Amino acid sequence: MKVGYARVSSSGQNLQSQIEALTKAGCEKIFQEKMSGTQTTNRIELQNCLDFCREGDEFYVSRLDRCSRSVKDLHEIIDTLNKKSVAFKATEQDLDTSSSAGRLMIGLLSIVSAFETDLRAERQAEGIASALKRGVKFGRESKLNDEKVIEAIRMQDEGITNQQIADKFEIGRSTLLRYISEYKKKS
Q1: Element holding 2 (H helix, E strand)
Q2: Disulfide-capable partner of 62 in 18, 39, 80, 81 (CB 3.0 to 4.6 Å)?
Q3: Is position 70 annotated as part of the catalytic site?
Q4: Per-residue pLDDT in tens (0 to 9) along the chain, 187 residues
């Protein structure tokens, strides 16, 4: 039996092109999920797909990186399939573990995929560091500036409850208390 696995990284992405490629390859059962490919442990449908495969089946993905972005995880997946006598195939990369050339290509491409993931992380870190040097602030804007925190402290002194103060500033009570605590530490 031909068994397919389709994956995208986020809920905003579409699985349709992968499903079409797997269906065209003759997959009778297709497992699909929207999860990051950096780890296999949290991908339930991948585990279900691997459990479903039986001796003589063929495990299909559209591209190698749809299965895993980690060399170690990819080799573990292929090892699991090999122990079950299940061939691994990628429709868009003409990869097939039933041949020695296919096994070599999968090894090389998985290393390239991991390298690309590392490069992306390095570029992201460099971009963040550069933005921080330029004074770019990350995260959402603070709900309370020092002036509002001083007003909140004054309101506390007047006997107004923390919940009433938090409601006035449209924040949670614990957030209000954190702002006040941080202000008092730096004062």
Answers
A1: strand 2-8
A2: 18
A3: no
A4: 999 999 998 777 889 999 999 999 999 999 999 887 777 778 899 999 999 999 999 999 998 888 887 778 888 898 899 999 999 998 888 777 777 887 787 778 777 877 888 898 899 999 999 999 998 888 878 888 889 999 999 999 999 999 999 999 999 999 999 999 998 888 7
pTM > 0.90: no
**In which domain, by residue range, is 42 found?**
2-118
- Domain shared by 105 and 160, yes or no: no
Rounded distance, CA 187 to CA 176, Å? 17
Beta bridge partners of 89: 60, 96
Kind of pairing between the strands at 2-8 and 29-34: parallel
Q: Which residue has the tokens 């008092």?
A: 184
Alpha carbons 124 and 133: distance in angstroms, whole number: 14
Give the whole-angstrom CA distance, residue 54 versus residue 112: 29
Measuring CA to CA, how many Å separate 159 from each of 21, 36, 65, 163?
Answer: 67, 50, 60, 11
Residue from 9, 70, 85, 187 carrying the catalytic annotation: 9
Instruction: Judge whether 90 and 97 are in contact, CB under 8 Å.
Output: no
Q: In what order do the strands lie in the sheet with 58-61?
A: 29-34, 2-8, 58-61, 87-90, 95-96
User: What is the three-class DSSP state of 95?
Assistant: strand
How many structural domains are present in the chain? 2
